[in-house]
Write a structure and sequence with these properties.
The chain is mainly alpha-helical and 260 residues long. The chain contains 11 helices and no strands.
Length: 260
């Protein structure tokens, strides 16, 4: 193959360039896991075909054509993967900068402290706005701080996050989670607590709720949120305003999201 690579160097470079262009166009900018999806299957198929020539099962002109095709496919896939990786880095950077800018712009000016005494800030973690849920202190991790109601009376549609359906959204509303920026600010302890409370520990990390919430909080659509807004996801078809009433219905007779 090395000999063929030197003979067709310019053609391979062109295949690599086409792969870069296609990878940049088709990549959504979401989190990429190269060890899942079609990539392992393509690599396995490539290795299987390569083995036919390396083990001399196929010889002559047929082997020459196969090896040439393998080189082109490898160059094309390398370009696709590189472009998708770079675009993901840019999307993540833009998301972080947008969230940071939004947080800086939303910080109100602190009132001047009186000269007679210093004002001690109140921590929302130590003084939550909502009552404790049953068995809260027995759940590993730390419950995230919540709000009694959505700001300005309008909640974000949490179902635009892959993994949050109508029932899980209702459970999150019951915990005082109404906005993308709340989920985007979860720590590892918060993720552990919510995962155990909703009875699916590890799922929040696998589906990457926090990264999706960061993008949506910054106004950046994900591949899933685009499909959900288009009505292509059955579990995301409502106006996103379900709240405490939905939570009560789940705890009485539902099974989705029911805590052990």
């Amino acid at each position: 193959m090395l000999y063929l690579a030197t003979q067709f160097a310019w053609f391979l470079l062109a295949a690599f360039g086409i792969g870069l262009a296609m990878g940049w166009i088709t990549c959504t900018g979401g989190k990429v896991r190269f060890w899942t999806g079609p990539i392992p299957l393509l690599v396995g198929a490539w290795a299987a075909v390569a083995a036919l020539t390396w083990l001399q099962v196929v010889n002559g002109v047929a082997a020459l054509w196969l090896e040439t095709a393998l080189l082109y496919v490898a160059a094309y896939l390398a370009g696709c993967c590189l472009a998708c990786f770079v675009r993901t880095l840019f999307a993540h950077r833009d998301s972080v900068l947008a969230i940071a800018g939004a947080n800086v712009g939303s910080i109100p000016e602190a009132p001047a402290a009186p000269a007679v005494a210093a004002v001690k800030p109140v921590s929302t973690q130590s003084a939550p706005l909502l009552d404790k849920v049953e068995g809260e202190d027995l759940i590993p991790g730390r419950r995230p701080s919540g709000l009694v109601a959505a700001r300005s009376g309008k909640a974000d549609d949490l179902k635009l996050i892959r993994g949050i359906g109508q029932q899980n959204e209702g459970r999150l509303h019951g915990l005082g989670i109404w906005h993308f920026e709340q989920i985007a600010a979860w720590t590892s302890e918060n993720i552990e607590w919510v995962g155990h409370y909703l009875a699916f520990p590890g799922r929040i990390e696998r589906e990457d709720w926090v990264a999706q919430a960061r993008s949506l909080a910054a106004g950046i659509e994900t591949e899933f949120s685009t499909r959900a807004r288009a009505g292509e996801v059955a579990t995301s078809r409502d106006d996103g305003t379900q709240g405490q009433g939905n939570v009560a219905g789940i705890s009485e007779g539902g099974t989705d999201g029911k805590r052990r």
